[in-house]
Amino acid sequence: MKERIVYFDIIKLFGIFLVVWAHVLQNLTVIPDYWLTDPLCQVIISFHMPLFMMISGYFAYSSCLKPSTINVIRNKFVQLVVPSVIWGLIVTGMAMVVHWDFSVEKFNYLAVNTLFSYWFLKSLFFCYLLTLIGVYIFRISKTIMVAYVILVCFLSRYLDYSNAMSMIPFFLFGVFLHQNESLLRTFWKPILSISLVVYLSMMACFSLSEYNMYSYPFAENSLKPFLIRVLIGTSGSVSCIILIKDVVSSFKTSFWPKISTIGQMTMGIYLIQLIFAESICKLVSPMASYLYHKLPPPIWIWYDFLITPLVTIIIIKICVAIITILRRKPLVRLLLLGEK
């Protein structure tokens, strides 16, 4: 078994914290579309999912080298798609029970939600699928590979952004990082400087509506939104990876290995947090919003930088406890967490 890279687990922990934090920020308030106007939400959304996809691509490099493409695709389907479908059924089923709504419309929603919930895992499988097929074709014929790339680019006009084509550049860049890791180690300072300048400049020049990863980027036959999002997501993710790696390497402490174990649970946390960071937060948001107004102004500072981070930490702790229980049974571990 390969030795784990501690700083990558720390990066994954930071990434899942941002994911849960963004969901809490969005749902623990009665203000409509809070995440579209809050500056903190805009910063998180600009790179948190690209960061996860880049890390996934980094570790996918070894899968690309395996000779049996079909076996890898099958294993990734079981690991990524099956748990997302099962948890989609669980979460939607719980909502039906809570609201005691068993109408035909609700069952139709259950079927649709099963297909589209946990979009990131399905998108990750999609990236694996396209990349592995591309590697297989490349081994056979470089000419066919060119036709394959053109076909994939053509499909981008018809596939949903957040669920399909949006994440491929970050996934492939992660593969590139693994292949050229020595380059990153040697020139990390200039790469960090360039990444930070690009990220900060583009965040200052463009609005959330232009780089929001949840909207369709190919409207009006323009590549501009797509390029903006790729540059912001890539520069923000690379900056994050280098900064965390530098901090972990510079400050030797037993604290890093301890919290890195949580970074090994990111998929389980992503699957389970939906119950708490979305469903339960929405239920208690009216009461929470009433309590916020008892705080001294400005309320948004309390909400963004104290209340929601604390709630996020609590939710992650609950998820870790649930994962620890689920891991005891091998079949449950596989079907609900995607872990062998």
Structural class: mainly alpha
Low-pLDDT stretches: none
Strand content: under 5%
**Total number of strands:** 0
Number of helices: 16
The helical percent reads over 70%
Radius of gyration from CA coordinates: 21 Å
Distance between the termini: 13 Å
Mean pLDDT comes to 87
User: Main β-sheet, in a few words?
Assistant: none
Overall 3D geometry? Answer: globular
Spell the H/E element sequence: HHHHHHHHHHHHHHHH
What topology emerges from the helices and strands here?
Blueprint lengths: L5 H22 L6 H4 L1 H27 L3 H30 L5 H13 L2 H22 L1 H14 L12 H12 L1 H6 L1 H18 L2 H4 L12 H27 L4 H9 L2 H27 L6 H28 L3 H8 L3
Keywords:
340 residues; mainly alpha
Tell me what you see in this structure.
The two termini are 13 Å apart. This protein has 16 helices and no strands. The protein is an all-alpha fold. α1 (6-27) crosses α13 (255-263) and α3 (39-65) packs across α8.
Summarize the structure.
With 340 residues, the chain is mainly α. The chain has 16 helices and no strands.
